[in-house]
Amino acid sequence: MFLKMRWFLPFLFLFFTVSSFGGELTVTDSLGRSVTVPAEPQRIIASGSGTLRLVTYLQAQDRIVAVDSAESRVSFIPARPYSIANPRFRDLPVFGEFRGLDNPELIAGLFPSPQVIFKVSPLSGPHPDQLTSKTGIPVVGFEYGDLTGKREDLYATLRMMGKILGKNRRAEEVITFFEQHLGEIARRTSDIPRENRPSCYIGGVSFRGGHGFTSTEPGYPPFAWTGAKNIAAGLAAGKSANVTISKEKLLEWDPEIIFIDMNTITAGEQADALHQLKTDPALKVLSAVRKGNLYGVLPYNSYTINYGSVLANGYFVGKTLYPERFSDIDPVKKADEIYEFLVGKPVFAIISDAFSGMVFSKIDPEGK
Prior knowledge:
The chain is of the alpha/beta class. The protein folds into 2 domains: 2-179, Nitrogenase molybdenum iron protein domain (Rossmann fold, 3-Layer(aba) Sandwich), CATH 3.40.50; 197-354, Nitrogenase molybdenum iron protein domain (Rossmann fold), CATH 3.40.50. It has helices spanning 2-17, 51-57, 69-72, 81-84, 104-108, 128-135, 151-165, 168-189, 221-226, 247-253, 273-279, 281-284, 287-290, 307-321, 331-343, 348-354, and strands at 18-21, 24-28, 34-38, 44-47, 64-68, 94-96, 116-120, 139-142, 199-203, 215-216, 229-230, 243-244, 257-261, 294-297. Helix 6 (128-135) links the parallel strand 7 and strand 8. The chain starts with a helix and ends in a 14-residue tail after the last helix.
């Protein structure tokens, strides 16, 4: 009954907040604003961290007519699968700065003009009402959510975007896809006794840029999904997306297995986790480092959560911690299956090459 209600409630939300009349829809967005938009618009822009990613998941990326500055830059590290799969984004006009700092004048001057603006974290940058008053274009606000405690926010956003875009079926396919994979990971790991779960740590976690080895996440999703014994789980009661742990605590807790978010290399040569593991005597005495239990995982946060990458990390973490439970899983193939479904192309090799083949591999901090 609970499972049925979980699926039913988001559907009710959409039923009562979307109405149509002729060629228009009236929706209630995440700010509680009533917004009238064209039905199935063919020209849109996606403002805010992660919005374009979700539009791509819904297979509506061909309707994008302009991008923000984050998409127009040719990053030296390709860490966003949806962007790798759609190189045309880099050639589109720019409508403003990243993280929702939209430029109304640039938007008003776009040709062809967008019919609607999708805006995740809608209070970042110009208020949606102000943006509409200056451009004449309706703005719909959304919440990005996540695949842990805010999963229903993500699903409600996918459904609302899908309703506006005429992509209802695709929205449900994406939601089912996530639920099936999360269920599969849980099925393989849920009955493992705690004493058989090795302690672990994720270092180098990005947050608005690259960070070093002591940057971690108490609620790191792959650890949560696999029931891993995350040594940092108690920090900030698991509510903070990113915390810095002291080296003293790391040495005290001494995790058996360590994972490194490979986006750490964007922190700079002297500040990244690999350099620190190679040069810091205190870190070299960690058991996982001495025994070679150090593994690279896909970049996780790059213009907010890369859902496909963190889901693929879930399988790799599961196989590393409990190899007998994932003996039939090839994490590389699984990653490309996920990418093909979500962004339309298998892009693992491109990402892996950018990180010198260290993703889903053992890492030797000495580079031997």
